[in-house]
Each structure stands twice: as C-alpha cells, then as structure tokens.
Specification:
The structure holds two protein chains of two kinds. Chain A is built from five helices and no strands. Chain A has helices at residues 4-32, 40-70, 78-99, 110-130, 146-178. Chain B is mostly helical. Chain B contains five helices and four strands; from the N terminus they run αβααβαββα. Chain B has helices at 9-32, 41-70, 78-99, 112-142, 158-189, and strands at 37-38, 106-107, 148-149, 152-153. Chain B is globular, with a radius of gyration of 20 Å. The interface between A and B is medium-sized, with 26 and 34 residues.
Chain lengths: 179, 190
C-alpha cells in the first residue's frame, strides 16, 4: 500500500488533469466552433466507429492476455500497456469516424482542429525527448514518460488522417465541379 | 474441472477465435441461403448504444486495473484481469440488448416449424447448461484452494467467472420475462 502522501498527490494530480482537460476542451470549442450536433447518418456511423474501437480494444487485450501467459513482460509496466491499448482503441474510433465524415459537425473548422491536435502531438513528443535520461528505471523498466510518446504518436496519426481527409475532400469537390 | 481450457490463455484465445470464426462462417452460410439476421432500426440503435456502454465499461475496468496494480492491490493475475474486462463488457452488452428486446434478430426466410425447433433446442441447451453449472460450481467448492496462487486468483478461476456471467444473463432473462408478464397482465386488467 502506498503512503498517504502518494495518495494525496495522486488525487491532486487527477483533479488537475480533469481541470486542465475541461479548460482545453473549452478552448478547442471556442477556436474550432465545435458544437456536437450530428445528423442521423453521422450518429449511426459513430456507433459503427465505437464498434471498431471496441473490437480493436478487445483484440489487443486478447493478444496481451496471450503474451502475459507465455512470456515475462519485464520491460513495459501494466499501466503503460493498458494506456497503449486504450489509445489504440481510441485511435481506431477517431480515424474511422474521420474517414466516414462522422467526426466533425458541419460548422466545425477542421483545419484548425487538425493543427491544434498536431501541436498537442509536438508538445507530447517534446516532453518525451526532454526526459530522455529518465526513459527507463534503474531496473530497465519503461518509465511513465513513455505515455507522452504514445499520446504524441496517436495525436500525430489522428492529425495526419484529418489532413489527408481534408485534402481528399477538396480533391473530390474539385473533380465533381469539373464533371 | 478446475483446471480447464480457460485456465490456459493459449487455449482460451484459440477457443475465442474458433467461436468467432464459426459464427462468422455460419452467418455467411445463412446469408447465402437468404437467411440474413436482420435487426430493425430500433434494435440496431440499441445494439450500438449497448456496444458504446460496453466499451466504456471496458475502459473503466482497465483504469481500475491500473489503479489496483499501481497500489499492489490486484486480486488476480494480469491475464485474468484482462479476461475479466472482456467478460464484463460482453455480459453488459448481452444483458442490455436482452432487456431492450434487441438480442433476437428478425431472421428472414425462417419458417414457423424452424422457429419452433429453435425454441426447443434453446430450452434443451438451457437445461443442459444449468446442469453443467451445478456440476462446475460443486467441483470448484471441492477444489477451492486451486483457485489461488500466492493469495491471488489464477487462471483456474476463469471458468467460474464465465459461469457467474452466464448466471447473471439467465437471471436477467428471467426477470425480464416476469416483468413482461406482469406488465401484460396489468394492461389486460386496465
């Protein structure tokens, strides 16, 4: 059992994360003008996207179950592994929704949103590379700073998907105008 | 019985792949014969909503697992923890869809005779399953110490959790039936 100081620190950290998340969400809403008003088709596709995310999550959990039963995973701690699996599930959901036009509402500024996400990715990558002396504990186990790298990769992939989708949409619009 | 196919993760995952693979092939076979399992719009919406709830349950379970592991309070091995997460979300999905009448699809091309056969098969399977459950639980009570390694639940406990999950689903169906009958009775009285 951890000390009361640790528990207090954990609770304070958790509260701080919640507050920061709410503030960031409010800023994103103001910048991108996002209002969660999806049409019926989008709601149905978002349901399918949840299915994709859920399946990705379950498949990875099953794979993890196999690995844990056959090998001694000494490098990656349990919480980091769980975080990685969760983020991949989330990534699958977001990418599926983006490619099926069910992530953004009609009034949303997609480009600004993608740039914002790219900035978040850069910030996380910067934090990870700044703490390179602490990447591993003295026992050779991955440290918590790896979660920053995971988030950086995830946000980068999401932003990349969003940009490619924006370009593809513009191209399709151009083609249809020419036709 | 305490040491079963679910105790070993390899055989469990193999069983999982076999189960999903067979159900996929079965659905494809039915589709080819024009018997496609089709849910109506309301059912589809409820199924997607239940899936969303199951997804959130899985995430919540993972977070709880992370917290417990960090504080060295994990009550089972890591593989069983993952297994429990999957089982919990699957149970939630089935219970919600059953309660909201979204688990049984409208099967196109099914005759009344086939439907009656299906019902008989379901009842027989149900009775067989209940007998199996009694046998499994009795065996677990007899070999209770085999469930733990260093004070933590080990892989042997997985079948017990499957049985408990099945019981929850069964109780859910029973409560639903009773509720529906009472509701219908009240409607008739009114």
């Amino acid at each position: 059992m951890k000390s009361p100081e640790y528990t207090l620190g954990f609770a304070a950290g958790f509260a701080a994360v919640v507050i920061v998340t709410v503030i960031i969400a409010m800023i994103i809403k103001k910048i991108t003008g996002k209002k969660t008003e999806y049409d019926e088709r989008q709601i149905a596709i978002r349901g399918k996207a949840y299915k994709v995310g859920f399946l990705a999550y379950v498949i990875l959990l099953a794979a993890s179950l196999l690995i844990h039963s056959n090998f001694e995973l000494a490098v990656i701690p349990f919480y980091l592994e769980q975080t990685l699996i969760m983020l991949i599930g989330l990534g699958a959901f977001v990418c599926f929704a983006i490619w099926n036009d069910a992530y953004f509402c009609g009034n949303e500024k997609k480009k600004q949103w993608a740039i914002f996400i790219l900035l978040a990715s850069a910030a996380n990558a910067a934090i990870f590379f700044k703490t390179r002396e602490n990447w591993f504990t003295p026992d050779g186990i991955m440290n918590s700073c790896w979660s920053n790298l995971f988030v950086a990769v995830l946000t980068f992939v999401i932003a990349l998907n969003a940009f490619i989708k924006i370009i593809a949409d513009k191209q399709a619009e151009k083609n249809s105008k020419e036709d | 019985m305490t040491d079963n196919i679910f105790s070993n993760a390899n055989s469990f995952v193999l069983w999982l792949i076999l189960f999903f693979g067979l159900s996929f092939l079965f659905t494809r076979h039915n589709k080819k014969r024009g018997k496609t399992a089709e849910y109506d719009e309301r059912q589809q919406q409820i199924r997607l909503l239940s899936l969303r709830i199951s997804y959130f349950i899985l995430i919540a379970w993972s977070l709880i697992g992370m917290l417990l592991a960090e504080n060295k309070l994990l009550f089972c091995d890591v593989a069983t923890m993952f297994f429990l997460g999957i089982l919990l979300s699957a149970t939630a999905f089935i219970c919600i869809t059953t309660w909201k009448n979204a688990s049984d699809p409208v099967l196109n091309g099914e005759t009344a005779e086939q439907k009656s056969k299906k019902l008989t098969l379901t009842i027989v399977t149900g009775i067989f399953w209940v007998l199996c459950v009694i046998w499994i639980i009795a065996d677990y009570i007899k070999n209770f110490e085999k469930l733990f390694t260093d004070g933590k639940l080990n892989g042997n406990s997985r079948l017990l959790f499957i049985v408990i999950s099945g019981l929850i689903m069964l109780i859910n169906v029973l409560i639903k039936q009773i509720y529906c009958k009472k509701f219908a009775q009240k409607d008739e009285e009114d």
